[in-house]
Amino acid sequence: GAVLFRYGLWIALPMVAILLFVTAVLGVISRVAPQMNAFAIGFPLTLTTGLLGIAVTLPMLEGPVVALMKLATGMFTGG
Q1: pLDDT of 2
Q2: Closest CA to 48 of 25, 30, 22
Q3: Distance in angstroms (rounded) separating the CA atoms of residues 12 and 26
């Protein structure tokens, strides 16, 4: 279980960090300018950031996914 959690965190952490930063910025914006609707601005901004973040981080995921697949095939083949 710990190995699966470690690899899952390794794969998901870049996107979690990007979206956490965007959410924090939107929180500051909604605090500074309450007349701006946070939902009207936040949803498209978060969606766009998520898609761009996936496009940017996808090439970096080759290492963790290959390592996880080697570990999984090693476990299933008994090696």
Answers
A1: 85
A2: 22
A3: 21
